[in-house]
Design brief:
The chain has 13 helices and 12 strands. With 370 residues, it is α/β, with parallel strands linked by helices. Helix 1 packs parallel to helix 12 (337-354), helix 3 runs parallel beside helix 4 (113-122) and helix 9 (287-294) packs across helix 12 (337-354).
């Protein structure tokens, strides 16, 4: 006879226990936010040079990255002009900027995108493209790079590949956090969680969370993104699953409200969703790494090759190597609020000091204009 297994349920909370937990969460939130604000009040604002140039920026539709680039360019240049992909040549001809910067050149760009880019170059305008999706679309980008003067990619491993295609001016330019969107803030009760992850449920992420699920029992878990209903453990976790997209300001609130924010990079060689037939490995961290840290949230991330160049593991960020390793660290850090807070504050400090869009774009402008 088959033995029936009881479904895991959270015990019914008494009013006294609910009040006690509410006090603990309020105290934790207050300490974290207060610690972040105390540090921010002491941090000097980084200084970046101003350049007397007019720049046209072509939007991609990556909300937070677009916003960060716009803010950065507006503070660094004499004039910023912004347009959608279908209007890039028309806008360039009308405004005659010193440079046109395109983000990614994929997904939402029209069929005549490359003809428009060539037309902008014929006007004598410098052109640059910044790839934020490498190496997941390496099947598509080789056709794009010959049409731009300067190639920037957030993926370190892509630099040599683009140079092998004959592109001379190729540079590694990491992504960053938009500080006016991702910053420490008090979280309302509806945004609180023990463990949070925001991102679409690519196959490697589904497999990971399914394996991690037993360690999440009894914790308040929030998963936000498409396809999370494909989890084997969906019924156990569905109370905290939000299918679909959340605006960037909402994501920042969930980061601020989480005791632990997971960061799971997508697989570069995924057979379903990646267009990477050359098999270029992924070595660089995603924008989520910077955004979580900028909120002063404690982050537990999988490893990428260049992570230690940007954050010190164990001091400014915490890492895991497997679901088992992640489970053990979840248990440890859920019980050690002070340690979480110390790491989170240091990660925020590092982000503010070194990983802003102003810092990235200052380097880009220096490369293009000297």
């Amino acid at each position: 006879m088959r033995k029936r297994v009881k479904r895991g349920r959270h015990p019914v909370k008494t009013p006294e226990k609910a009040r006690s937990e509410g006090y603990i969460r309020g105290w934790e939130q207050g300490c974290r936010y207060g610690s972040c604000q105390a540090v921010l009040n002491r941090l000097p604002a980084p200084a970046f040079g101003f350049i007397e140039k007019r720049v046209l920026f072509v939007l991609q539709g990556f909300e937070a990255i677009d916003a960060g680039i716009q803010q950065g360019l507006a503070s660094l240049t004499r004039e910023l002009i912004v347009c959608k992909p279908e209007h890039m040549l028309q806008t360039a001809a009308a405004s005659m900027p010193d440079m046109m910067l395109v983000l990614n050149g994929l997904h939402v760009f029209p069929e005549d995108h490359l003809a428009q880019a060539d037309g902008v170059r014929r006007l004598g305008i410098k052109t640059a493209i910044w790839f934020a999706d490498d190496p997941y679309f390496m099947d598509l980008t080789p056709a794009i790079v010959p049409h731009y003067d300067y190639i920037f990619t957030h993926e370190r491993n892509a630099v040599a590949y683009y140079r092998s295609l004959g592109c001379e001016r190729v540079f590694h330019l990491p992504l960053a956090a938009a500080g006016h969107i991702y910053y420490p803030q008090p979280a309302e009760p509806s945004y609180l969680s023990d463990v949070c992850f925001i991102g679409n449920a690519f196959p490697n992420r589904i497999a990971f969370i399914d394996e991690l699920a037993p360690a999440l029992a009894g914790s308040k878990v929030v998963l936000i993104g498409a396809l999370w209903d494909r989890l084997k453990h969906y019924k156990k976790l569905r109370g905290g699953i939000h299918l679909g997209w959340k605006p960037m300001d909402e994501a920042a609130k969930y980061y601020n409200g989480a005791r632990i924010v997971l960061n799971l990079h997508r697989a570069p060689l995924d057979r379903v969703y990646s267009k990477n037939k050359i098999g270029l490995p992924a070595g660089s961290i995603n924008p989520r790494t910077y955004e979580i840290a900028a909120c002063g949230a404690f982050q537990l991330t999988d490893l990428r090759g260049d992570l230690a160049e940007f954050y010190t593991p164990g001091a400014e960020i915490e890492t895991f190597e497997s679901p088992e390793d992640c489970a053990g660290k979840l248990l440890y850090y859920l019980r050690n609020e002070e340690r979480r807070r110390e790491i989170a504050v240091r990660g925020m400090m590092r982000t503010r000091a070194s990983h802003s869009f102003e810092a990235r774009l200052s380097r880009l402008l220096q490369i293009v204009f000297g």
